[in-house]
Amino acid sequence: MAAEKKTEYLRVGVIVRPHGVHGALKVMPLSDDVGRFNALSDAYLELSGRYESIKVTNANVQGSDVYLQIDSCNDRNAAERLRNVYICVDRSHARKLPEGEYFIVDLIGCRVVDTDGNDHGKLTDVFSTGANDVYEIKGERKLLLPALKKVLKTVDIDNKLITLDADVLAEVGLFED
What we know:
Elements (H helix, E strand, L loop, with lengths): L8 E11 L4 E6 L12 E6 L2 E13 L2 E6 L5 H6 L4 E5 L13 H4 L3 E4 L4 E10 L4 E6 L3 E5 L5 E5 L4 E4 L1 H7 L1 E2 L2
Parallel strand pairs: 7-12
Antiparallel strand pairs: 1-2, 1-6, 2-5, 3-4, 3-6, 4-5, 7-8, 8-9, 9-10, 10-13, 11-12
């Protein structure tokens, strides 16, 4: 199976609304590391499948709230036009993940098999629940699976293949009837 090219841009936030009258943006972070916005200087706006380079001129993180000022947005009307637009970084500016952690965009589309040779389909979504992520896998039957180290035997992002421990899967997997 040929490996698919990794997505060049990673979504780190989505603009939820203008903040004030001078073009500031309130951003809902999509990153586990909200502090990453404090050091964000080069980013991209995802606009209908194309990516527009921007400079972040000011970032203010208050708890889980993020407020950004970008070079191309100087008034409330310009900020309003950016509502629901994703803020992205390219892979060279993405934070480095510890071993055993993956970007969701890299997991989506992975084929999922188990150690008994069963093909369960493709990973279609990842839900963050707080305790651990839950993987949604669609094949002959839909499967919901907690992303636990004991069930994930191997995760091969380059070849888009995840192998599960069949015995543990029988204990923790939730199959749709």
